[in-house]
Design brief:
This protein folds into two domains: about 50 residues; about 260 residues, 2-enoyl-CoA Hydratase, Chain A, domain 1 (Alpha-Beta Complex). It contains 15 helices and eight strands. Strand 2 and strand 3 form a beta hairpin. The longest helix has 19 residues.
Length: about 325
Amino acid sequence: MNYLDFEKALAEIEGKAEELRALARESKGMDVEAEARALDEKALTMLTDLYKSLTAWQKCQVARHPDRPHCRDYIDALFTEYTPLAGDRNFADDHAVMGGLARFDDRPVMVIGHEKGHDTKTRIERNFGMARPEGYRKAVRLLDLADRFNLPVITLVDTPGAYPGKGAEERGQSEAIARSTEKCLQIGVPLVSVIIGEGGSGGAVAFATADKLAMLEHSIYSVISPEGCASILWKDGGKMREAAEALRLTAQDLSKLGICDKVIREPLGGAQRDRPATIASVGKAIGVLLSAMDGKSRDDLIKARRRKFLDIGSKGLAA
């Protein structure tokens, strides 16, 4: 278990409980279960107290936790007959973006998502979930395919943002993101997006311009990272805590603002503490959101999706 900075005291208590049990396994006559249980109870109380009042910055840390389930985990657990489709038919295949044909609850769908990788090798291969232009052009190709064959689209968003490298900019990064966002608005099939970790900048918007947007309880979604915001506004990346509060990037804030349609509860301590339960909750939410759009015509879907985004912020302007 990887512990976050604000979980250090919790790590000590859980570590002591595990040490006691390890000693008992080595010395069969030693009875430490009562002491270990007392430590477990203390750790549970501390965990509950920590996670009922997380700050925006602490939620950023949880959203970035390396042990959270990633796109690949959701696809393996929730979809059957997954057939990956690769390449943008122009330049290359971007491994930060994965997608293909699959069945969800035995219903044919197109699934697309950012994949960060789970260890050093795969994180480098996946570029830490930061897509290049060819990743977004691959997504556009898959969205077109879904539209042509009347397949609902499910996107799983988990990216710090689009890759800002020189080569990516030379190949038209901003144009590729804009085209992907535009394509999300144009397709005449249901589009459900779930923020499973980080939803960073235009790199996330390009996949999340959906009919229904769901967010895991401790995920984040913002126009810029807190560190980037702090560097621009205060010329000090160390002010990321203040930036996180100002950005209103938590699922709870975005639900109040009408941007997030559904907040999906996570297990106590975050998705990383019970990956199967988290994945099951996401699957249930996707099913509910897709069912809500059953029977809607192509024109109705497109009009409602466009209206949803045109209306964002209108309540605040009216007030």
